[in-house]
């Protein structure tokens, strides 16, 4: 027979464990038709991340408190589209005033406060088009949170937390805070852009940040490799999907 004293000690330890347990969220970045093979900004082998992500969801269902999907969601004449800057590119500079408003086509502004480097992309992930839909192969649940980004026509938004100028933030950080999340497992597309910028912001915001390498693919190998090197320097943990078991 277990003594009442031991029983209360065990209950105390159990409660301590429950209160100290980390709350983990899974972030699924931009797994949309536009970034998959056949899409307008197709990432090589982008579809290969889907079974890996679905597997993480099902295997660690009990340990993942929240799942958030980001969705690149652009105006049809978005500033990041090469079609809007005939003859320019592949990289341009965009000037903004201190309120985050874009200076006019001649870059006239009362005061230039920000000079952002903008990579020009093919038209992609346009609002309310099938290109912007999540892949049908991706597991989704009604409780998942969807974070749309990039719908300000004049500024791009790689990170699921902030736009590229840091002018506006999405609802992601607030939702994670409300749920008491302290660790993030980041997956999706593309490793060198939206995954990278989301992970960098996550780390800056104080989350314990993991990027699951085999659940991501880069637009190019070179930028993918430098993104990984930079994430490691910043203390973001780069893991492979079997390692999720050890961090959870
Ligand atoms: C992305 C380029 C442009 C991404 C989004 O999801 O990584 N890349 N828009
Ligand atoms: Zn985009």
From TrEMBL:
Keywords: Hydrolase, Metal-binding, Pyridine nucleotide biosynthesis, Signal
An individual GO BP term: pyridine nucleotide biosynthetic process
Domain of life: Eukaryota
SUPFAM superfamilies: Isochorismatase-like hydrolases (SSF52499)
InterPro entries: Isochorismatase-like_dom, Isochorismatase-like_sf, Isochorismatase_Nicotinamidase
Secretion signal, residue range per the UniProt entry: 1-21
Pathway: Cofactor biosynthesis; nicotinate biosynthesis; nicotinate from nicotinamide: step 1/1
Domain Isochorismatase-like: 25-240
GO MF entries: metal ion binding; nicotinamidase activity
The keyword Hydrolase is annotated on this UniProt entry: yes
Enzyme class: hydrolase
PANTHER family the UniProt entry points to: LD05707P, PYRAZINAMIDASE/NICOTINAMIDASE
Protein family per UniProt: Belongs to the isochorismatase family.
Protein name, as recorded: nicotinamidase
Organism: Mytilus coruscus
